[in-house]
Write a structure and sequence with these properties.
Its cofactor is Mg(2+). It is built from three helices and nine strands; from the N terminus they run E-H-E-H-E-E-E-H-E-E-E-E. It is of the alpha/beta class and 178 residues long. Bound molecules: 1-O-pyrophosphono-5-O-phosphono-alpha-D-ribofuranose (PRP) and guanine (GUN). The site of 1-O-pyrophosphono-5-O-phosphono-alpha-D-ribofuranose (PRP) has 19 residues, from strand 3, strand 5 and helix 3. The site of 1-O-pyrophosphono-5-O-phosphono-alpha-D-ribofuranose has 19 residues, from strand 3, strand 5 and helix 3.
Length: 178
């Protein structure tokens, strides 16, 4: 049995409403694009990407990167491993980088640094969750679903030690005895 409980923080309905609002802004801001390359940062963002992509009305291509820095811990190792790179080219393309959560900012800053070396035409950042109080590396965010407090969260694609990604809502992790 898990040695922690998950307390609801953001409901599935609240997430859906915010995704509608974010998608409307992206559709407006990229209305003249020939094609928007939606880059999903796995694994945590797989549910968010699936829901967001279906609300986009501009021409879209989807590609994925896998990055990892937390392992089975609730603290970042600050050592970002690019486990899988993009399959396609982004030179001269319009790119939307989609992340589930920005915490210290290390993961995104490393991925943005890498993608910028490939000279995209535009590179914008979308995150479902943001923990501003935890930031160690500054990252400009173009689209954000929710600012959340300094708590470890799971659900809606986001894991603790690979568990809980299947929860339809976002919840906070509370270890027994803490
Ligand atoms: O801003 P940071 O402090 O870098 O944290 C954010 C990153 O942490 C999580 O990834 P994780 O390394 O746990 O991999 P996962 O996406 O496979 O769960 C999350 O998905 C973000 O990518
Ligand atoms: N699962 C999970 N991963 C994270 N990575 C950075 N912050 C978090 C968090 O709150 N929960």
């Amino acid at each position: 049995m898990a040695d922690y409980d998950v307390k609801p923080l953001i409901t599935a309905d609240e997430i859906a409403t915010q995704i509608d609002a974010i998608a409307a802004k992206i559709n407006e801001n990229f209305k003249d694009t020939k094609k928007l390359i939606v880059v999903g940062l796995l694994r945590g963002s797989f549910v968010f990407i699936a829901d967001l992509a279906r609300k986009l009305t501009v021409p879209v291509e989807v590609d994925f990167m896998v990055a990892s820095s937390y392992g089975d811990s609730t603290e970042s190792s600050r050592n970002v491993r690019i486990v899988k790179d993009l399959d396609g080219q982004i030179h001269g393309k319009d790119v939307l980088l989609v992340e589930d959560i920005i915490d210290t900012g290390y993961t995104l800053s490393e991925v943005v640094r890498l993608l910028k070396t490939r000279d995209p035409n535009r590179l914008e950042i979308c995150t479902l969750l943001n923990k501003p109080s935890r930031r160690e590396v500054d990252i400009p965010i173009d689209y954000c679903g929710f600012d959340i407090p300094d708590e470890f969260v799971v659900g809606y694609g986001i894991d603790y030690a690979q568990n809980n990604r299947n929860l339809p809502f976002i919840g906070t992790v509370h270890f027994h005895g803490e």
